[in-house]
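Escalated from tier 1: S-adenosylmethionine holo job.
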Amino acid sequence: MGDTSDEEKALGKVKVIADQLGLSLDEIKEKKYSKKTLKRMLKNKVYNETKIEKRKIQKQKRKAKRKELKETLGINLSEKKPRLTMSESPNKVNIAIDLSFNSMMNEKELRKLMKQIQRCYSLNRRSDAPCQLYLTSLKDEIAKGLMSKQPGFDYWDIHRKEEHFLDAFKDFKEKGTLIFLSSDSPNLLPDVAEIQKRGGDYAYIIGGLVDHNVHKGLTLGLAQKSGIQTARLPIDQCMELCVSKVLAVNHVFEIMLNATNGIAWSQSFMNVIPARKVKQSDALKSIRQPKKEHKENSENVVQKDQVENQSSASSGSESSTT
Ligand SMILES: C[S@@+](CC[C@H](N)C(=O)[O-])C[C@H]1O[C@@H](n2cnc3c(N)ncnc32)[C@H](O)[C@@H]1O
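Tier 2 regenerated the structure:
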């Protein structure tokens, strides 16, 4: 007796859902829809029916909020922030990606490098103060690849040089202000205030290479042979990594771009270096949770910057700053 009434109840529920879905009980039996499937179908139906209406309401709310802000505070949120081109930017620091390593990469690695270059370009384009971004040795496969595979490459606001960076930045080499960035360098980059102070008098070169560090020490050796200075990012001074300190081209560029905009090394490392590479000490874990503990975190960053400044000042015994 009890069983029959339970079955009836269940059937009643299915009937209600079937009606809402516009299905007959025969159709449900034939297609062998389970109760769970029917519930999911109903949920999707309700979602789809209300989606457009909900979006309309949200749009109206946003519009009203923008209007209110404009009327009460004179803030116009609909106005797009103007983007500065490199020539308009007050940031004159030169950062070049050296593309002279084509022959050392297979097709997959070349494609990866192109993606990394695209990322560097878009980071610079969206920056409040873009730096002077160069591509040197821009010829052969990489040039052809960028032109054919990157939509709009011809219109990119980027300095293009076919020459090798040693020719493109000859004056800088003579003045001793040409620095090749290499994780293998015995020298550290100075603090960001110094990078900003030097401005356009200096040029920093990033090796355009995707090699999973198979060619360890390659760019350091080449730079030393050419008689130019080298420097590494002060990662050890700010955090412990569980893997090698060799970063991808786009990560090095992002950190350098941030530095030219006055963002402290430690803050950049925390935001840019992939979390999987970072040894998750408790301190770093708390810094990597931005929302709730924001105030606490910014204090941590300040404290870390003080440590960073002290350590880079005191690291002179181990490595000089370049
Ligand atoms: C994927 S790495 C290539 C590593 C390569 N074996 C070499 O000899 O440079 C790409 C480039 O990013 C820059 N780079 C990577 N990690 C760096 C670090 N920790 N400090 C400074 N530059 C770094 C270097 O310019 C490097 O050539």
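The beta strands are 94-98, 132-136, 159-160, 178-181, 203-207, 229-231.
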